[in-house]
# Entry
Amino acid sequence: MKRRLLLLISSTLAVFVLGSGQVAASGHWDLVALSPEARLIAEKLQCPICEGQSILGSNSTTAKMMKAQVQEMVDAGWSEQQVLDYFVEAYKHTLGAGILREPPKQGVALGVWAVPPLVFLLGAALVLLLLRAWHRDARLPGLDEANGGSVSEREPERL
Amino acid sequence: GWDPVENVSFLPWLLGTAFVHSVMVVERRGKLRAWTLGLVIAAFAASIFGTFVVRSGVLSSVHSFAESEIGPLFLTFFGVVTLATLLLVFWRLPALRDEKEFDSVLSRESGFLVNNLIIVGIAFATFWGTIYPLASEALQGEKITVGPAFYTQVNGPLFLALVLLMGVGPLLAWRKSSLSALWRNLRIPLLLSAALAAILALLLGSPVAALAFGASLFALAAVLQEYLRGVRVRRWNTGEAYPAALVTLVSRNRQRYGGYLVHVGTVVLAIGIIASQGFQQQLEVNLPRGETATVGPYSLTYLGTEESRGPGMDVVSSRLAVTRDGVSFGSAIPRTSYHFNWENQPRTNVAILTSLWDDLYVFQAGVSESSATFAIFVNPLVSWVWAGGTILLLGFLVAAWPERQSARIPVWEPLPGAIAREA
# Structure
């Protein structure tokens, strides 16, 4: 029984050895205590070894070390942009801008931002055109349904 | 959470929702036939595409499934289904001609067009964000991560527009609405929700959240007003008591009032999601035994930790006494389980306490001889998410329960010959 408890303690202690003294001093075992500013930044960084998780949400050793690093930078007065830029630079040979959870609005990633609004506008234009066509078709003479059958059935004869 | 696997399973729902709206235009006005067919095909194809994405492991997701050889098979199936259905539609396109009659742009049918535009827009953005990292890596060799921030920024405004339309749409008449009639129907929900949004903007300090809650209340008030109006009319005409009038009203127009109930469920769900995502409070704290931490309305006192042996595992569990606004609210017992032979991969059980207004999650992060570390979360209105889902399902059952025979009369009134043919 005690063995498990020790295991829990030792495994969390291992994180401190790997992480920074900052974290160890805060007296936390497993979680890296983050200030609200650091937390916001950690949520914007992709965990490089996890699938689809931010470093904030990840419990991996890498993520914990990165979180500790973020906290240190924030404490040293770095701005959010400086921290993010630092990690993009640090991972430029592997993930590059992929380290950012929010794709940058420039370069190749611009496509992900630009296309959906364009498609939406295109769709809106189509809706307007369709409404105009409906309006026009309804006014065409000789298309009232008084002569039997619906318009769709008489269409082939008429054309 | 806007994870790729969640996204692809969301797509068929979106397209299906667009379909159940546009099909009403087909049914009542004989328009949008080919488009509606396209939507139902797209919804089916999206569900196969989703299975392909989930099972093939092409996208990275927190929900990692065992990878298998089934991916190429599903991709082939997806291709065959899409191609075959498109060919069929083109072959039968002459039979899908729309009715020509159209009265006014300010009408229910136009409302459904806008509804389809917004929903398909959301579906496209979701699809695009999900596959873009894949395409960018394959074509440009550049890795990109598309996280939740993308979806909240792109889809957020579209969802807001959809909720607003949910309030306006049901008040538009088929064929033709007049602006004055629309205003008469809209003014009470509009004024109520504008007032609420203003109050919330001051209270919450977040204009975006205030706008979202205001739009939700607007849609809710519009639907309730529709129910009230229907019941009043029945009571006036038949002299039934209010409850009886409500029952007959709903049972005689199940598609309509069931659909409204689905709207109510969706709005309640939306309120729950916005509140729990946007107003979460959290605290990570190391508590010596006997000490108390406070998060939001909750105070938690750490009582102690014990170990026990369960079937095939050892369990470390901590006990915290919880009060909410000073009133005892039971105890939270977060646990960590160590399965034999898998001790290096402990399993954590979060303690969850639910109230009408918020959920308390307590996660045990670490334990020492005299203290323990906890992550404590207060998630507002989570129970609303459950309630909204339940209402939605109920509304769906009311609307979709099979009728014995369809007695629906199209409002474009085809000639007797056409009715005989349809019957």
